[in-house]
Specification:
alpha+beta; Thrombin, subunit H; 6-stranded antiparallel β-barrel; 7 helices
Length: 393
Amino acid sequence: MTRIVCRVFLTLGALAFICITIAAQTNNAPLDSLVTVLLANETDVQPVGTGLVVRADGYILTPYNLVKNARNVEVKLANGEIYDNAQIAAFDERRNVALLHINAVGLKVIPNGSSEETQVGAKVVLVANSAGQAITSDGTLRSVQMADEIPGAGKGYRVLDTEFVNGINSAGALLMADTGYSLGMVTTTPEVKGRNIAVPLSSVLGMIRSAQTPPAVPATPAADKPAPSTTPAPIAQSSVQMPERGVIPPAPAGPGSVIVKPTSPRDVLASSKTICVRSNSVSFKSDQLVNALLKQPEFSGFGLTFVDDSNLADVIIEVDHVVMTWKYTFKIYSQRLSVVVATGDRIIWDGNLGADAMAERVVEKLKTTRGTPIPQAAPTADPKKEADKKKTT
């Protein structure tokens, strides 16, 4: 009996160890953080290499020579979403690295940041996603040295020299230690076959951290109907998630003064500057709707900035799922003023597949709520002045 109990405990312990190991490997998996960089023209779209998500607010590291002088750069995420018109936020031509920016938030960043503790001669892993599907290759870290000493690698910067046997498109691939630490990004294939040159992530960490998210550009009004801009001037922010503005509501200044709060949905929306998305459904993440709304060209004209904290939001979009159906609903409201701005719904399978459709419906409801400016009536003519005018003529 004692032997049986011991065997049971040993078996359970082994299973627990296996589960923990698998979980650790899954948490370190970088596949969701690798994107495909594509170049688009009038006729087709061609994948050219891999990109690494280095900041959750839409910043992607990729080789500069892939996107230099490109007219239209697209980025395809691991879940299949494609973002058009990716912009070069910063670049280092010597190291052949560029920092792209797309209008997305909540992205998964490459695991563990940067580390160069791996010893020369240790096993390393190359992970590429140049064609829309992740491919891995095992290799060896040959050396950590200046590029000047490697033919075809350039001059004046430090590199990780690696050796691989797989003939894959490794441009922009992530170089990882076998322990799961991110080491660098492959930027150059030197003249010697079977070798790749990677730039240490620590060398470009300053460029990554200092990049500023560009403000949203409001929609340009028609030339024949110019309208004054209602979008506030961009405020310098250390994070797109936390705007630098007061959150304490105004109070009366003295006897006889009063604060007039907006009460109609149209007035509430017109006076709102921040918005937060909350989801009560496990199959529809708030980030999915945020990313889809940022891709809507008309949304930038609303002058709304996304925040994570609902206490900082002027209006909130709350998503719900009707149980046992494919119907997802949303409510746009101001919790401080207790005013519902708009409601709507969509029939979709889940947030991953239907975020764009839901975003279109949200924008449609916001446009309806905002309405169009009420035309001013022409001034009524003065009868006395009209009579005097007839006499003189």
